[in-house]
Prior knowledge:
Blueprint: H1 3-17, E1 38-40, H2 45-54, E2 58-63, E3 68-79, E4 88-90, E5 100-102, E6 111-122, E7 127-138, E8 143-148, H3 152-169
Antiparallel strand pairs: 1-7, 2-3, 3-6, 4-5, 6-7, 7-8
Helix pairs in contact: 2-3
Amino acid sequence: MRRAPLAWAVLLLAGLAGCQATPSRLPEAEPPPAAACRWASPAGPAPVVAALEAEGFVIRHTEASLGLVSAERARPAVFHGAPEPDIFLLGRHGHVGGGVLVGGGLGVLDDEATGIERVSVVAGGATVRVSRDLRLFDWRGELRRARTASDAGFCRELREAIRRRAEEDA
């Protein structure tokens, strides 16, 4: 009689193990990068590095054989959008000055945050490809928002800056 519960447990575990499956596709940037983030250009990594540094980016990694340049910049921001309110006012209705601030402190309504903008540029061969993402971290260092931001406006500005740097270097 002891074998029946053991057999059921083995069948249950085997069934649950089969529930874990591999994804049907690899992760992709959503929304995908704008068409303006890919253009034909013989520019190598040198003008890309110069253009990004001129815009305040710090170069984090380069791989000359691939033409890859990874950079980021940080900017102070304000985080509006806590999922739940940070303050509660308790007291009588209409009583001026009555109430208690719970969970208070300075900056309780608008927490200071840091926005991190990361850019990767592949300028190897005859094509330049750009990808960019934005992340917002609250004052505790917790990630609050993240999104891809490879939009046409940013890529056009970067393309023009790279073109100017390439002309200066020539």
